[in-house]
């Protein structure tokens, strides 16, 4: 079930909230657990069994870690953590990477691994990372083991962020699972954030996504330099407003239910360096890799070659986390190279350069990265990049570019402005009464327009269904 659908907004969500706020506080986790399991079952059916298995394994491992530590058995605690990590990585590896590895080996003539045609469970990359962090947090003393399997199951299956994040660490949510405050103010602010996310997804991401689909489907001979860049610009906006829109909806839904999730995006396209970009983009993933991979590997408190190796591992993992395809690995390594160049050579210059130069530099490199990200077929990717840089004698511009630019210019301008903090800055300058009036008008107007799109829209891709 996807947030940006009528069945979720008008049926599932309304019914869940009605029951959630009617039952006593002690029963709300039961409501959330049942609703979340149904939410996942709606899209995955039999794969809901994975949720039960993951919940049971990590729940028992958390208790085992705490028990071993209480008895002074650190070796036993570390073995329990290792067992939990192996289970979660094996689960993720089988469903997400088996066919990728098998297909790659078969292309080399090695047939000992059959291609199974495995269907990837929605959101598995998100919830396995969350459950894996639980036992690690318990071992480190950052969280206490959850005694109630019902409460732990609520953490694992929590529907607002189950299928598209943000990645929530148990140490950040454990206390809220046990006890949280619901209020009218929190509910109202949650609705506001939810509507912002829904508008990002339906009104901006879906519309610019159609432009990208048009250019992605073209054969290289039909592309021009300007057209190829226009297509990538459309995807640059699509992936940001799609993913940040889902993150906003998750944060808003969480607040409606009384939870506080950390923000996942902070206007990444205003960055003046790639380093800054990754402090603002998919913050929960970057934080997870830093805390559970980069620092355990040694971080930057080691010799320079080892530090570079640590970063290489992190960025290779970041790339392949996004999908079982070689282009995602290339995408991660592309950012590793850029970040190395910045750390050794470019950051000092970027910090002293005019802000506009830094913005242009960053957006240019990020747009190239999105071409690598979006085109999984290496042959198609190579042809597209050649056209972007005018190689092979391709024309600069044609009539199709003029048509698409004229047709999509308004929504591209809206996307450009909405990807900056300008609107938020102007809103905060208003008086409290003007803020309330403006917010009410925008929420009601957005609800009407988004409802129209929900009912009549046929183009509603879910970009992160394979993550």
Question: How would you explain this protein's 3D organization?
Answer:
The chain is an all-alpha fold and 467 residues long. It folds into 2 domains: 6-180, no CATH class; 186-466, no CATH class. Helices cover 73% and strands 0% of the residues. It has 18 helices and no strands. It has helices spanning 6-22, 28-44, 48-70, 74-107, 124-140, 149-157, 170-178, 184-216, 225-256, 274-280, 283-297, 304-321, 326-352, 355-374, 378-388, 399-418, 422-428, 432-456. It is globular. The two termini are 15 Å apart.
Strand content: under 5%
Average pLDDT, to the nearest integer? 91
Could you tell me the radius of gyration in angstroms?
A: 23 Å
- The number of helical segments is 18
The major sheet is characterized as: none
Secondary-structure-derived class: mainly alpha
The SSE order reads HHHHHHHHHHHHHHHHHH
> How many domains?
2
Short recap of the structure:
The chain is mainly alpha-helical and 467 residues long. 73% of the residues lie in helices and 0% in strands.
List keywords for this structure.
single chain, 467 residues, mainly alpha, 2 domains, 18 helices
